[in-house]
Amino acid sequence: MAKAPQNAISPSRSEDYPQWYQEVIKAADLAENSPVRGCMVIKPWGYRLWENMQRALDDMFKATGHQNAYFPIFIPMSFLEKEAEHVEGFAKECAVVTHHRLEPDPDGGLRPAGKLEEPLIVRPTSETIIGATFAKWVQSHRDLPLLINQWANVVRWEMRTRLFLRTAEFLWQEGHTVHATAEEAIEETERMVAVYADFAENWMAMPVIVGAKTPGERFPGAVETLSIEAMMQDRKALQAGTSHFLGQNFSKAQEIMFQAESGEREFAWTTSWGVSTRLIGALIMTHSDDDGFVLPPRLAPAQVVILPIYRDDEQRAAVLEYVESLKSELQSQSYADAPVRVEIDDRDMRGGEKKWHHVKRGVPIRLEVGPKDIEKNAVFMGRRDESKSKGIDRAELVSSIGTILADMQQALFNRALKLREDNTTTITNEADFRKFFTSTDEDSIHGGFAYCHFADEESIEPLLKELKVTIRCVPRDNNDTPGTCFATGKPAEKQAIFAKAY
Amino acid sequence: MAKAPQNAISPSRSEDYPQWYQEVIKAADLAENSPVRGCMVIKPWGYRLWENMQRALDDMFKATGHQNAYFPIFIPMSFLEKEAEHVEGFAKECAVVTHHRLEPDPDGGLRPAGKLEEPLIVRPTSETIIGATFAKWVQSHRDLPLLINQWANVVRWEMRTRLFLRTAEFLWQEGHTVHATAEEAIEETERMVAVYADFAENWMAMPVIVGAKTPGERFPGAVETLSIEAMMQDRKALQAGTSHFLGQNFSKAQEIMFQAESGEREFAWTTSWGVSTRLIGALIMTHSDDDGFVLPPRLAPAQVVILPIYRDDEQRAAVLEYVESLKSELQSQSYADAPVRVEIDDRDMRGGEKKWHHVKRGVPIRLEVGPKDIEKNAVFMGRRDESKSKGIDRAELVSSIGTILADMQQALFNRALKLREDNTTTITNEADFRKFFTSTDEDSIHGGFAYCHFADEESIEPLLKELKVTIRCVPRDNNDTPGTCFATGKPAEKQAIFAKAY
Ligand SMILES: [Zn+2]
Ligand SMILES: [Zn+2]
């Protein structure tokens, strides 16, 4: 029997996907659990990735007319009480501040003191506190549309947490907008889910499906929730961003009113939309392999790392001079409208260890340069999405680096799209549905995305619960052909995507 | 009697400085109080300013070798207990999370439920939680120095709050570093206070004095605290940034240890340093005048605003075409190594109202352009730091815009420096000290910075309390001549700066 190939991450994806995910994060130095239950520490390499995501998204928000602002981290308990569905959705899992001081206790420790008259909630989302402020800002139709975004931390008291995917505290952005008409608010909701799809596909190289959530899966208080859904390598779905049309629910709860051109005072129409550090989890599960993290070039903190190789001080001087000039030349090239990001790793460390350090962290291009390469005016190049390294002429590398990075970005997208297409099917009856979502072996990966006509959410709920399947969304595109419900046989207007999900 | 000149802000600085400050913030749309006691809403114009500050500081931190990361917002109560001085300093004013759920109460409202085993503190500063993580990250001397920065929100339960200057929640950055030797940690502490001084003087146009805090004014747990101190227009001091040498206090409390080259396990040496949204308060009080906010060009979200003037649609088309091309030309110029930031304000609003809108918001350069200006190929320019507007040839404006902005930046700095120099004195006896810090009229502005030799902090405490004066710092520069204490007559090695302060 042939020896299994040696990989950097153990277990492999096929051996234990959830554990593989944790190990990739650890090997890539992205994040770790903190001493505070459910809260994570985002390490420098993970945070640089988040900064790149933030920068790209922020530019897109500004290009669509939004401005950033900042609102309080605390929400008075009474604010949550105002909107009935919203409080049901968020009261169950929140951090409650009840005191504003600590005092010595008799045992020599500390205890809470200074009880607050009204408890404060650490924001799980900010519709209520931002809405209360918007009620003051919005007076006339001339104040509309009001297009605001906030970058912030939020807290939801999750019992079972997993780094990036579900943590008690996470970082996100939340857009909050106010409009004079339902039409404009719906247009905004659609504009922003399209921005998210653009970011997911063109920056993260992660194909997504845009659709509407069914009533049971909507944001608490929303009239409609649109989302982008992606397939991970274990064929589970991951909701990567949501955009909510809130109708007049929050404007009525918070009294956001404006004087229309007619002179009448009317309730405004609001939206909210958000993506979070969960996107990093999505990125890991979309592209990484059994050697660790794989970064799409467009978001990579370093797109190229140069590893100088030498045996003595004399060689060192020559090699370092060479790689410094190579770095400058590469940086003067551009990819995706920005200078190529290049780093030199000259740490004193064994060559193999150093190479694997960058493989595991997902750097798109590794360049090894030693005295022999310099003689030939060439470098040894490894592309993170290909297993073999190869020699390449220096001038050719420099002139083609932008193309190489673009090619890798596209290759990652194509690979992810192929996985999704290979694991997507249309199902028209319950027997096939059961089979698709039931594994023959308890631990094996099974299922994928099933497109099924369905009549109503409630009647199929028991079946979905049994199989641990959820309705991901009702896709927007190519979904106008009526059919019959796969489970009940009733007439059904639309298909939904069914999948197991994160 | 001559009629007083009409100004945009009422009251004026001389009439009521604290109230003037609030009115400037309101008129410039920078921030407002929120429905949550002590927490502010930072409005878009204020947040854009903060983003510019962040960007500049972040670049400086990265240029000095630091990396960003993110740590939990919560600190377990037991972590605070570990460091005796630190807990004394921060336990008195913190937000305590005691429950993780809300449940319906019998009155139809909500009440906290799900009591936590250990209360959590919303971070007032993160030495303890970051230290606990660093204890894991640092194992060997090869892991040092560890140079980390975090951008975050923090909460201190202040009873008397004032927008930007003192709020329950504020935004800041906190640097946290670990070193193998005391010397390296002290060097880092000094390097970062120098970065703050550079930012204050060269970006904010705010002259500062670098000095060491006396023991009574140090950060709780620090061995030495360095700060930058600035003089506001009411001659009070404002501490604008601090850098702390923490010695081994936190490394011992958190067990941050490393294996030295000798093989011995040693406690590490740590530092921390921070600036916050308080800097915006400092900026307002340094440069603003009785017409509102004055922005130093280098930090201004918009450096130039163009106000097109026209009477009808025909004029409108011609004027807009002209200002668009003017905008492009100006943007192709650069100031302080970045393209000039130009905006056109074409809102439908009376000309005077629109002009004052931008005056109050502090935009450095206003350009008014109407059909007559176009005929002459000229524009009408108003500089925020000068009262008169003047006509200027278009080509001359474009070619000199960088110089004009640089000139204004320098003029603001010079004006602030002159105020400080005019209100700084050396005092050698208690009688003069009392006189300097006692106003003849209860409401008048008085005092300033007094350089005084002093022997020890405790013996002069009653005098300082009586006069509401504090020791700002022991300046680093030109402070080697011994003298005698102004209050006690005892021999004194150094001078300190005494001032009333924010
Ligand atoms: Zn609701
Ligand atoms: Zn302490």
Automatic annotation (TrEMBL), chains A, B:
One of its GO terms (biological process) is prolyl-tRNA aminoacylation. The keyword Protein biosynthesis applies. One of its GO terms (molecular function) is ATP binding. The keyword Ligase applies. InterPro entries: aa-tRNA-synt_IIb (IPR002314), aa-tRNA-synth_II (IPR006195), aa-tRNA-synth_II/BPL/LPL (IPR045864), Anticodon-bd (IPR004154), Anticodon-bd_dom_sf (IPR036621), Pro-tRNA-ligase_IIa_arc-type (IPR004499), Pro-tRNA_ligase_II_C (IPR016061), Pro-tRNA_synth_II (IPR017449). Keywords: Aminoacyl-tRNA synthetase, ATP-binding, Cytoplasm, Ligase, Nucleotide-binding, Protein biosynthesis. It comes from the Bacteria. It catalyses: tRNA(Pro) + L-proline + ATP = L-prolyl-tRNA(Pro) + AMP + diphosphate. Pfam families: HGTP_anticodon, ProRS-C_1, tRNA-synt_2b. Gene3D superfamilies: Anticodon-binding domain, Bira Bifunctional Protein, Domain 2, C-terminal domain of ProRS. Residues 46-296 form the Aminoacyl-transfer RNA synthetases class-II family profile domain. GO terms for cellular component: aminoacyl-tRNA synthetase multienzyme complex; cytoplasm. Its EC number is 6.1.1.15. It is found in: Cytoplasm. PROSITE patterns: AA_TRNA_LIGASE_II. Belongs to the class-II aminoacyl-tRNA synthetase family. ProS type 3 subfamily. Catalyzes the attachment of proline to tRNA(Pro) in a two-step reaction: proline is first activated by ATP to form Pro-AMP and then transferred to the acceptor end of tRNA(Pro). Homodimer. HAMAP family: Pro_tRNA_synth_type3 (MF_01571). Consists of three domains: the N-terminal catalytic domain, the anticodon-binding domain and the C-terminal extension. This is Proline--tRNA ligase. The lineage of its organism: Bacteria, Pseudomonadati, Planctomycetota, Planctomycetia, Pirellulales.
